[in-house]
Amino acid sequence: MGHQQQQLLRQELTVSQILRVYGKKFTQITGQYSDGHDGRCAIGLIMSYFGWNGRDDYRASRKLLNALVALAHTGASKDLVIQLNDSGMSFDELADYLDQVQVLTSEDLMHY
């Protein structure tokens, strides 16, 4: 089993849990993933959960991939999350929104 797969198995927090729990360690920002210090947008926050330090560009792309894989399970797109983040929705509000979207997507899947 590859390192990537182990990492995904180890990831027990949902995106909304990451936003709620891990979000407390950072200041929410808009317009960029990271300010190079402790400011993160929602996507940057998820990337940091997967080990990104908010600065290293060469590691950012892999962490972004991890974040996108995690997001795919919620049924929300990266662009939507960025839009909600930049429109002033807090990490907690975003988490609530994603929980609602996820419930809808799983219910939809059950009906088909």
Short account of what is shown:
The protein has 112 residues and is mostly helical. 62% of the residues lie in helices and 4% in strands.
Topology (elements, then pairings):
Elements: H1 3-10, H2 15-21, E1 27-28, E2 39-40, H3 42-49, H4 57-72, H5 78-86, H6 91-111
Parallel strand pairs: 1-2
Helix pairs in contact: 2-6, 3-4
Main attributes?
112 residues, mainly alpha, 6 helices, 2 strands, 4% strand, globular
How are the strands of the biggest sheet laid out side by side? 1-2
How many β-strands, per DSSP? Answer: 2
Query: Which blocks of ≥5 consecutive residues have pLDDT under 50?
Result: none
Radius of gyration: 14 Å
What sequence of helices (H) and strands (E) makes up the elements? Answer: HHEEHHHH
Q: What composes the largest sheet?
A: 2 strands, parallel
Shape verdict: globular
Mean pLDDT: 86
Spatial separation of the terminal alpha carbons: 33 Å
Estimate percent helicity.
55-70%
Question: Can you tell me the number of structural domains?
Answer: 1
What structural class should be given to the helix and strand makeup? Answer: mainly alpha
**Range of strand content:** under 5%
How many DSSP helices? 6
Describe this structure in words.
The protein has helices at residues 3-10, 15-21, 42-49, 57-72, 78-86, 91-111, and strands at 27-28, 39-40. It is mostly helical and 112 residues long. The protein has one domain. Strands 1-2 form a two-stranded parallel ribbon. The mean pLDDT is 86.
